[in-house]
DNA sequence: ATCCCGAGGG
DNA sequence: CCCTCTGGAT
């Protein structure tokens, strides 16, 4: 990276002052379900299916007893619908049986749930448990790579390595803020295709500037 | 490395 | 047609 990550974050925090979630939810349980459904699909799509889902299954006990076919129908549009339906149902059962009906608040317990990897667990820790986490999704990884914070390996970007590299470049107190801001920048300007490099406020700090085909 | 899997953009 | 959209499990 050409400049300081902390200075880039200061700039982005002025560009994106509010730090809202893009997934609709009211409780940790609802966020857990929404995050699992968000794999490889847009949050807008998730938000279309979750109202009916949360209405039909308001808590882990209800979801654990859901009919698989009915559940698959409700989450169909999010893609990977068989896998996702099974994961959220099994996760709900585990939450009831092992965690007293409450979503657990540690990385280890969260990632023990089916369908919950480090990225999804990080979202829960940061949003519901006040934790600090480097949340590596497709947007975050792309932006971190373009800035020059991490490198691609044989198989492209490895989320674990991206997390390690960014964590090493930043005090832990800013991990979640960094996750939010790079993610937000990725979805609003630093697109995978035709990113808005010409109006990017942190272009001067970016190793990839200007990305070929940028506008 | 591969599979799961629908939807929209270019 | 190919890529991308807040990944995770095998």
Task: Give the SSE map.
Blueprint: H1 5-15, H2 28-37, H3 43-56, H4 60-64, H5 68-75, H6 81-98, H7 107-111, H8 118-128, H9 138-147, H10 159-168, H11 175-188
The structure holds a DNA duplex (10 and 10 nucleotides).
Can you put this structure into words, describing what you see?
- With 215 residues, the protein is mostly helical.
- The protein has helices at residues 5-15, 28-37, 43-56, 60-64, 68-75, 81-98, 107-111, 118-128, 138-147, 159-168, 175-188.
- The model has no long low-confidence stretch (mean pLDDT 95).
- The protein binds a DNA duplex (10 and 10 nucleotides) through residues 22-23, 35-36, 38-46, 76-84, 87, 114-120, 123, 135-140, 155, 159, 183, 186-187, 191-194.
Can you give me a brief rundown of this structure?
Helix content is 54%, strand content 0%.
Largest sheet: none
Q: How many domains make up the 3D coordinates?
A: 2
CATH topology of the largest domain: Endonuclease III, domain 1
Distance separating the two termini: 21 Å
How does CATH name the architecture of the largest domain?
Orthogonal Bundle
Unreliable sequence segments: none
What's the total count of β strands?
Answer: 0
Helix-strand string: HHHHHHHHHHH
Q: What is the overall number of helices?
A: 11
CATH superfamily of the largest domain: Hypothetical protein, domain 2
The proportion of residues in beta strands is: under 5%
Helix proportion of residues, in percent? 40-55%
- Chain-averaged pLDDT: 95
Radius of gyration: 18 Å
CATH class of the largest domain: Mainly Alpha
The assigned structural class equals mainly alpha
Instruction: Give the overall silhouette.
Output: elongated
């Amino acid at each position: 990276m050409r400049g300081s990550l902390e200075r880039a974050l200061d700039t982005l925090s002025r560009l994106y002052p509010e730090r809202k979630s893009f997934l609709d939810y009211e409780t940790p349980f609802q966020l857990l379900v929404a995050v699992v459904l968000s794999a490889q699909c847009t949050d807008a799509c998730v938000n279309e299916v979750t109202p009916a889902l949360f209405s039909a299954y308001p808590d882990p006990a209800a979801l654990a007893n859901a009919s698989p076919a009915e559940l698959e129908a409700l989450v169909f549009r999010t893609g990977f619908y068989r896998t996702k339906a099974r994961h959220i149902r099994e996760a709900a059962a585990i939450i009831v049986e092992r965690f007293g009906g409450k979503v657990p608040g540690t990385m280890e317990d969260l990632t023990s749930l089916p369908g919950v990897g480090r990225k999804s667990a990080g979202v829960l820790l940061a949003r519901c448990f006040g934790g600090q986490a480097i949340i590596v999704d497709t947007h975050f990884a792309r932006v971190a790579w373009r800035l020059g914070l991490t490198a691609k390996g044989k198989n492209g970007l490895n989320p674990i390595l991206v997390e390690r590299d960014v964590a090493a470049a930043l005090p832990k107190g800013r991990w979640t803020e960094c996750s939010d801001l790079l993610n937000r920048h990725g979805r609003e300007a630093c697109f995978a295709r035709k990113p808005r490099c010409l109006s990017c406020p942190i272009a001067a700090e970016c190793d990839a500037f200007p990305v070929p085909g940028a506008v």
